[in-house]
Amino acid sequence: MYSSGFVTSSKTVTNCIFTMNTASNGGGIYFINSNPSVMNCVFVANTSSTGGGLYVSTSNPMVTNCTFTQNSASSTGGGVYNTALSIPTLTNCILWGDLPNEVVNIDSDGPVITYCDVQGGFLGVGNIDTDPMFIDATGTDNIPGTEDDNLRLILDSPCIDAGDNRAVPLGITTDLEGQFRFVNVPASADTGVCTPGAPIVDMGAYELQASPLCPSDADRDGDVDLDDLQLLLFNFGTSCN
């Protein structure tokens, strides 16, 4: 689903992509007087004056396992802008590459951000400030928000097995693509919070699927598909030196 929205009720938004939308405030979503839940969503290449990806006003949304990147605001809050009387909770999210900044808050009580990768850093348990290592954030056309973007994580990403299982709503077992949501990647350190019987969730909208790497897995996302062929053809003939 590719869309933008103005939300005034306590809805549940799951498995959506908000891309290349423009608004005066809240390019991706504008929350006002609402307490919604947002899960497994991508906010990419949205633009606005304030709150390029998300604008929160007198609302307390729960935002979990979402990816914000390449959003922009001409004023402030490229990723998320939070007004007074609002306490959004962001967990297991990636906020990276948004301009001019990732999170702007004018409420002393919020937002509550934990187990997220936030460029520039943000105070909170489990938060990191490290390149999430997307496979290819702008695709071969170098245009953010188009269909060839690949915001999945490579095997070396610090966001793998780094989330908080307790934040994932009951009944959520898959990621944005319908792949398993809780997957252990043995090659990655477990830096997040586990729950009994479940591997630690990744940060972001996509979960890296554990499978043996093979020479055909050019983008190192754990499967062999047309993305690997496209990457091979794009780099064919280049030097490895």
Please supply descriptive tags for the structure shown above.
4% helix, five-stranded parallel beta sheet, 241 residues, mainly beta, 1 helix, single chain, 27% strand, globular
Q: Can you offer a commentary on this structure?
A:
This protein has 241 residues and is mostly beta strands. The protein folds into 2 domains: 1-210; 214-241, no CATH class. The protein has 1 helix and 20 strands. It has one helix spanning 226-235, and strands at 5-7, 12-14, 17-19, 22-25, 29-32, 37-39, 42-44, 47-50, 54-57, 62-64, 67-69, 72-76, 80-82, 89-91, 94-95, 103-105, 112-114, 117-118, 134-136, 150-153. The radius of gyration is 17 Å and the shape is globular. The relative contact order is 0.13. The mean pLDDT is 89.
Topology:
Blueprint: E1 5-7, E2 12-14, E3 17-19, E4 22-25, E5 29-32, E6 37-39, E7 42-44, E8 47-50, E9 54-57, E10 62-64, E11 67-69, E12 72-76, E13 80-82, E14 89-91, E15 94-95, E16 103-105, E17 112-114, E18 117-118, E19 134-136, E20 150-153, H1 226-235
Parallel strand pairs: 1-5, 2-6, 3-7, 4-8, 5-9, 6-10, 7-11, 8-12, 9-13, 10-14, 11-15, 13-16, 14-17, 15-18
Antiparallel strand pairs: 19-20
